[in-house]
Give the backbone structure.
Amino acid sequence: MAKLIYTIKRRNYLIAIYAVLMGIIVGVGMTGATGVNEIINTSEGAKRRLIPAVITAELNETIFENRLFIEEHITEVSKAKYASIEKKIKDNRLKIDSLMTLYSDTYGNTSQENNLLRYRNALRQYQSLEQIVLSLSRRGEKQQALVLFLGQSYKKFKDITEPIKRMTELHVEEGELKYEEAKRQATRVKFILYMSIAVATLISIAVGAYAGFKYMYG
């Protein structure tokens, strides 16, 4: 009977030791998983900041490309080429509208709505001037078209492209900050994980040695 009780005690003791070791392993795993989730969330935040930067950069590029097409229209002497140039301008305007909608859906919020609305209005005013320049050029009034293109139209062009440039820089800066934060988190998680593994290993060795001693010498 005494031997049976002694055997049961040892079995329970070994089960307890196993439970402690499993707890240490689970703890280390949870530490790593939590850290990885933090890094993933921060990386997603960086991506969310950089996507609007890509959109605004492409928006600026498309507006500038249209300006080059209008300049080409003014300097073009062959009326047969007008339709081709005007189609490129029209296609780019559709692309600009799509990019504005995409930006609004991706980054737009209550505080941004008024700014986006004001920008859309300024863009429409600029595009109206573009249309006047094209009309003058189409009628052969090249000098008047060029004066408007280099004067009032250019001022409106600067007014709408400078804010986009600033928005792009802002989004890139925000994305870079999130990226740096993710790098710091990765370094911190790596350190914590290595320390947890080291501590867990030492505890496991100590517990194992103690268990072996108790098992052999009671």
Notes: The radius of gyration is 34 Å.
